[in-house]
Design goal:
The protein is built from five helices and no strands. It has 178 residues and is mostly helical.
Length: 178
């Protein structure tokens, strides 16, 4: 089977998609014949089958994502309605019972947490635990400016940026023998 460049594969996929739009249940052999007839290109049966399978996988993934998005949006609509009703209970001037108002606030919080958890589980958000995004280290001049600004803000004299001197724990005049 010949190797094709990515551009050629993309063109072949486009041709096969065009064939599948007109004839959704096209067999591999029929697709090879239609490629020869419509585009005057002869491709290997196994290569065409590989491309048809790729198209099927792409379509299945699109359907899965569309279904997931539809279910998530319905779930979010329901919880938004619950939160809206809870806000009405909380904002009701006639309601004097603080326990009821606190339960309404708790319901609002739980609804928003539930939506966030479902969206997070679906991969809408990404959590980077234990990973810090750091930029370039500060230059000594920038570090000095930061230290001066912090000293000014907190009323402390600026600290030197160089290495700290080693502490001298022994008083002068006393030497400990080994």
């Amino acid at each position: 089977m010949p190797k094709y460049s990515e551009d050629s594969q993309a063109e072949h996929l486009a041709m096969l998609r065009e064939i599948k739009v007109v004839n959704p249940d096209v067999s591999c052999r029929k697709a090879v014949a239609l490629l020869e007839k419509l585009h005057q290109i002869h491709l290997d049966y196994h290569y065409v089958n590989k491309l048809l399978n790729k198209i099927r996988r792409e379509r299945a993934n699109r359907i899965n994502h569309a279904t997931l998005n539809a279910v998530l949006s319905e779930y979010q609509d329901v919880l938004d309605l619950i939160a809206q009703k809870a806000w009405k209970v909380y904002g009701d001037k006639g309601e004097k019972n603080n326990v009821v108002k606190l339960r309404a606030l708790k319901e609002i919080r739980e609804a928003h947490t539930a939506v966030f958890d479902k969206l997070f589980d679906a991969g809408v958000f990404e959590r980077n635990l234990g990973k810090l995004k750091t930029g370039e280290p500060l230059t000594p001049e920038d570090q000095e400016k930061v230290n001066q600004a912090l000293g000014f803000a907190y009323g402390k004299p600026p600290e030197p940026t160089g290495p700290a001197p080693a502490p001298d724990n022994e008083p002068e005049g006393k030497k400990v023998a080994d």
